[in-house]
Amino acid sequence: MVTTLIFAGGVGVRMNNNAKPKQFLQINGKSILLHTIEKFERHVQIDNIIVVCIEGWIDFLKLELKKYNIKKVKWIVPGGSTGQESILNGLKELEKQLEINNDNIVLIHDGVRPIIDNYTITENINSVRTYGNAITVAHEIETIASVNEDGKIDRLIDRNTVKIAKAPQSFYLKDIIEAHKKSIEDNKVDFIDSATLMSYYGNKLHTVIGPSDNIKVTTAKDFFMLKAMLELRENLHELERLESYDDRERVYYR
């Protein structure tokens, strides 16, 4: 069984938007979070989705899921004070709901990262089954500099040896739950993501190359970039549909 854990429990303080959390900002009539959920809803290998959500916005999310006929979201749980705590809340619920065996896979994904494609999701699942885990990464296209405390460059790093960690980050459910339990025992509650946590506890991580435009919405600039990309994609899909219709008409009247 394959489950996606989408965590959207943060308030997004860097957005400078007090009215609405960033995951519920609207693009083309849908929240960013719903755009993300839909990508996993439509993937044939995803069996279940669990969403970790800001507690005060759970009812809003339920209404949106109903409006857009989302069927795979089986559980919604409140978020925590950090991303790590939110993910743990979701994993605890999965531990109650699913068998912890060698077959159950979980894809952990940001609720504000909707530019994800079927190929990357499939490759994550395949990588877990082959190697035990999958960390989605993208190629680095800029020059990377290692800088010392004085602000001077120590060295320039070959960008061909560097990748940017993104999401999904995917594991066997039993392995990621075990690592989270260790982190609580060790009072290690400041891991930036699941890859960092799993690496800390000695797991060898395997990469999957994902889309470079798979951005995480953190700032207002990110929001407007995402809005432009989603609108462009929708316009391209509409253009393809119209061109396909025109082709059929030409054949019909030939």
UniProtKB/TrEMBL annotation:
One of its GO terms (cellular component) is cytosol. This is 2-C-methyl-D-erythritol 4-phosphate cytidylyltransferase. It comes from Paraclostridium bifermentans (Clostridium bifermentans). GO terms for biological process: isoprenoid biosynthetic process. Pfam families: IspD. Keywords: Nucleotidyltransferase, Transferase. SUPFAM superfamilies: Nucleotide-diphospho-sugar transferases. Gene3D superfamilies: Spore Coat Polysaccharide Biosynthesis Protein SpsA, Chain A. The keyword Ubl conjugation does not apply. GO terms for molecular function: 2-C-methyl-D-erythritol 4-phosphate cytidylyltransferase activity.
